[in-house]
Amino acid sequence: MKHLILILTAALLSTTLSNAAPASLFDGKTFEGWSGDTAKTWRVQDGCIVGGSLDEKVPRNEFLAAKKTYKNFDLTLKFKLTGTEGFVNSGVQFRSIRMEKPAHEMFGYQADIGDPTWWGCIYDESRRKKVLAKSDMDAVNKVLHRNDWNDYRIRCEGKRIQIWLNGVRTVDYTEEEKDIAEEGLIALQIHGGAKAVVFFKDIAIEELP
């Protein structure tokens, strides 16, 4: 009987954990739990994480990274990208690491953001340096809100990665290379070389078994 009770307790605990409410990664007020260039590039404004400038070009790629690593998860957030000059681009890093040289760069998967055809793609930042999975822009353009708020959902389970933009699944990618890490940091990017500003808010993550 005692053995049965232990089994039932473990099963209940597993079910409870798998159905736990998503945890917020941003308190809306501070950079608690994040690291990056908060002196010049990143700021907190009106409950959002904001990066970049419309007055002068962002000199280089910059990333604001959450300090905790994640493996299997379901991440949701809202973002808005605006820009007036140059390569207006952003993205959300996941299963990534911060490089030592140059220290401002990240290495790993990115859910890309930006025109002409980057929305909803998976780009391999500073590693294979190519698009790993391309979105269908005909489908994306039907739901995309340029210069306004959009929803991203990124789900990682083992080697499978899925991304949704405003409820439309843009990619369903399975990693085939054996040595690619399945755990790492989540980070927010503003791309260098443009007068551009990106906003992020309502960042929440549900960790999966």
Question: What can you see in these coordinates?
Answer:
- With 209 residues, the protein is mainly β.
- The chain has a single domain, classed as Jelly Rolls.
- It is 11% helix and 49% strand.
Summary, kept brief:
This protein has helices at residues 2-18, 137-141; strands spanning 23-24, 34-35, 42-45, 48-53, 62-70, 73-86, 90-98, 106-113, 122-125, 131-133, 150-157, 160-165, 168-174, 184-190, 194-207. By secondary structure, it is mainly beta. It has a single domain (24-207), classed as Exo-inulinase, domain 1 (Jelly Rolls), CATH 2.60.120.
Structural class estimated from helices and strands:
mainly beta
Identify low-pLDDT runs.
4-17
Major sheet attributes: 8 strands, antiparallel
CATH topology, which one?
Jelly Rolls
> What's the number of structural domains?
1
Q: What CATH architecture would you give?
A: Sandwich
Per DSSP, the total helix count is 2
Strand content: over 45%
Tell me, what's the shape? globular
- Indicate the percent of residues in helices: 10-25%
What's the CATH superfamily, by name? Exo-inulinase, domain 1
List keywords for this structure.
mainly beta; 15 strands; 2 helices; Jelly Rolls; single chain
Q: How is the topology of this model organized?
A:
Blueprint: H1 2-18, E1 23-24, E2 34-35, E3 42-45, E4 48-53, E5 62-70, E6 73-86, E7 90-98, E8 106-113, E9 122-125, E10 131-133, H2 137-141, E11 150-157, E12 160-165, E13 168-174, E14 184-190, E15 194-207
Antiparallel strand pairs: 1-15, 2-5, 3-4, 4-15, 5-14, 6-11, 6-15, 7-8, 7-14, 8-9, 9-10, 11-12, 12-13
